[in-house]
Design a protein that fits this description.
6 strands; 4 helices; 117 residues; alpha/beta; Rossmann fold; globular; six-stranded mixed β-sheet
Length: 117
């Protein structure tokens, strides 16, 4: 699977995804870096079939209204330490990948894994 990690999330997440065998980039890898507008992120996601990983509710609105980005992983943990987020993410990478085989919108919180239909 291919992922695009949004600006407000740590770059270390792409390394964990890559270690699990996935293709992953961070907005820092894009020409405009973390200043890349959401519509450009959506365009990259659509063209390259990348799952956007974000905390940004604007992507939820865009996905709900226009089914953009291609697929969406919403991180709804609130403010937690990066090490804790990384641990939570590592524990759930297989589950996340499995969910995206058949679904387009998944949400990960500190206590709940939700597949939106």
């Amino acid at each position: 699977m291919k992922f695009l990690v949004d600006a407000q999330l740590p770059r270390r997440l792409i390394h964990r995804l890559q270690e699990a065998g996935h293709d992953a980039i961070h907005t820092l890898d894009l020409p405009l870096g973390n200043r890349t507008p959401d519509d450009m992120i959506n365009g990259i996601s659509e063209r390259e079939q990348r799952i956007v990983i974000t905390k940004d509710a604007d992507f939820v609105n865009s996905f709900t209204l226009y089914h953009k980005p291609y697929k969406l992983l919403l991180i709804s943990t609130g403010n937690i330490k990066n090490a804790e987020l990384e641990r939570l993410f590592l524990q759930n990478i297989p589950r996340i990948a499995q969910a995206f085989e058949d679904h387009d919108f998944v949400e990960l919180s500190q206590t709940v894994f939700t597949i939106h239909k």
